[in-house]
Amino acid sequence: MKDKLIQIIKEAGEILKDGYYSKKDVTFKAKKDLVTKYDVAVENFLKERFGREFPKFNVIAEESDNTDKIFSDSIIVDPIDGTTNFVNKLPHTAISVGVYKDKKPFIGIVYNPILDELYTAVVGEGAYCNGEKIEVSDESVFQKALLSTGFPYTSGTCEDDLNDVMKKMKIILPKCQDIRRLGSAALDLCYVARGIYEGYYEMNLKAWDVSAGLIILQEAGGKVSNIDGNDYILFENKYIVASNNHIHNELIRNLNL
Ligand code: IPD
Ligand code: CA
Ligand code: CA
Questions:
Q1: Nearest Cα residue to 182 out of 209, 224, 208, 149
Q2: What residues are annotated to the active site?
Q3: Which domains does the chain have, with CATH numbers?
């Protein structure tokens, strides 16, 4: 299944790439949450091909109405993660596809066609970037940890969320090496998997933002949890916390101060 998925996702990458280099109209789904015709085009392409190739799986996808979809044997799709980057021609944007069997992680694929980076993982078989095995960093000193985070779209409308973001930043920033905000949750998780970041946390993400990246990170030796340090549950938890394992406890502790 993995090879077929890769072939289809690479084809979809051509649609993303065409859009990236074109002039595009932007529609707002919410105050800060935007969408383009390319998000819809990539999603429709993937849904059609996945439906044909993998009929036993349902497809849960960001730009679709998922109300009648039951999460079980599911392919969870973010057609363009990092849409704000995509619109602004910042090359940190990717297609994210996570495959689950009976709600359990099976295959994760994240593809950035602009930088031609393909992250893949099958549970139990390790994680790869363009075919090369990747692993998390072995840094265990929190002060030396380069972290990543994201700002929720609700930061423009919900003062509680905005305050929570700022409070956590104020506590964590002085204690770590630095914090990045590059704008694609799927790639953030892959960058932890690759040893670029030691850790990553963010609130209010949707299942399609992280369904693939969390599989890739776990297969690269990393850890993913909720803000209490317990198993992260797709579709349920407000916070995702991810790391190289070594700094996980300290990251959790600081996020809860
Ligand atoms: C967004 C990106 C971003 C994160 C947002 C996500 P989108 O996904 O992953 O990094 O901070 O919260 O919603 O909207 O570009 O698919
Ligand atoms: Ca997303
Ligand atoms: Ca998206």
A1: 149
A2: 62, 78, 80-81, 83, 209
A3: 2-134 (3.30.540.10), 142-255 (3.40.190.80)
